[in-house]
Design goal:
8 helices; binds copper (II) ion; elongated; 5-stranded mixed β-sheet; 356 residues; 12 strands; Immunoglobulin-like; alpha+beta; Cytochrome Bc1 Complex, Chain D, domain 2; 41% helix
Length: 356
């Protein structure tokens, strides 16, 4: 075979190899539907990167395998191979082409990142709080409505202002493509414009402890009119309109509360912490071998000083943050409604209702 024929054969094989690899890769790493304007941009990049990866992979593999198979030494061939001392053209090519390519990809990446993170017109702010192991969402533009589900109007640019209460978490809805960490002590931001009405799932993408895999939240993208209706329906009543038990249930929840529900169930099922079903008055075995009756004083102490009396069989993972959080909330209610509440009393009243 002449040199020219080898070049034709190798070129054809590289093209076929690249196409097969590209389709293999896209089939193997199938992306979920893209449901935001950001997804379009990201998917374009994915496509180009997969194309380049497929081409480079085919190029290297075809040259290597072709040489191994076609230029194998024939039996009886004792001749020495030709000695080649470099090839300036090839060396310039394989330096300049990747250089240009990498710089171009870098510039493209930087401009895309800038476009994805810069301010949009008419943004709606949602405050996101992540804690072990739940999410909550506050809507400052809708009278500070708080929700355990993330509900977003379709085609509305959203600015998520995010904070973590304890450790690193990460906001990730695969259909939106973009992702951002929540860092304790610092506010981070993420911008999304959802384009498709539907139900999605937010998952934490940063291993954050025992129940990390349960740190999920429903995401619903709805029409503007459905969103307005949802806001109306879910706005919190005034605290003075609620009984202590109702307030306790609220504090327990992610909706307007402190998300105790991330670790404690109220139906007897397992959680990272003991269930609250039948807690009040229960004989609780502690880690130090003693037994204690779960009365007001014990429950109060368990909330204020979680490391004090550890329940046998459970790790000491309850965060010691509630004393400060409760004080801040109580002060807020006092300022807004001129009403004095004791959040721990509310919680105890609620726990008392949870009898088997
Ligand atoms: Cu997390």
């Amino acid at each position: 075979m002449s040199n020219r024929k080898h070049i034709y054969a190798v070129s054809a094989l590289v093209v076929v190899g690249a196409i097969v690899t590209y389709f293999g890769l896209t089939a193997l790493y199938k992306l979920p539907v893209g449901a935001s304007t950001e997804a379009t941009t990201i998917d374009q990049m994915f496509g180009v990167y997969f194309g380049l990866i497929a081409f480079w992979f085919a190029l290297i593999m075809v040259f290597m395998l072709y040489a191994v198979v076609v230029f194998k030494r024939k039996p009886g061939d004792t001749e020495d191979a030709a000695h080649i001392h470099g090839n300036t053209t090839v060396e310039i090519l394989w330096t300049v082409v990747p250089l240009v390519l990498v710089v171009a990809l870098g510039v493209w990446g930087a401009t895309t990142l800038k476009a994805l993170t810069s301010e949009r017109e008419g943004e709606m702010v949602v405050r996101v709080t992540g804690q072990q192991w739940s999410w909550s969402f506050e809507y400052p533009e809708s009278d500070n409505l708080v929700s355990g589900d993330l509900v977003l109007p379709v085609n509305q640019p959203i600015l998520l202002k995010m904070r973590a209460n304890d450790v690193l978490h990460s906001f990730w809805v695969p259909e939106f493509r973009v992702k951002q960490d929540l860092v304790p002590g610092r506010d981070t931001e993420l911008r999304i414009t959802p384009t498709d009405i539907g139900d999605y799932m937010l998952r934490c993408a940063e291993i954050c402890g025992l129940s990390h895999t349960d740190m999920l939240a429903k995401v619903r993208v709805v029409s503007q009119s459905d969103f307005d209706a949802w806001v109306k329906e879910n706005s919190l009543p005034a605290m003075s309109e609620l009984s202590t038990e109702e307030r306790g249930a609220l504090w327990y929840s992610t909706q307007g509360g402190f998300a105790c529900s991330g670790c404690h169930t109220v139906d007897g099922s397992a959680g990272a912490g003991p269930t609250w079903l039948g807690l009040y008055g229960r004989q609780e075995a502690l880690e130090d071998g003693t037994t204690i009756t779960a009365d007001d004083a014990y429950i109060r102490n368990s909330i204020l000083h979680p490391a004090d009396q550890i329940v046998a069989g459970f790790p000491n993972v309850m965060p010691p943050i509630y004393e400060a959080q409760f004080a801040a909330k109580e002060a807020e209610i006092l300022a807004e409604e001129n009403l004095t509440v004791d959040i721990i009393e509310d919680l105890i009243a609620y726990i008392k209702t949870l009898q088997e």
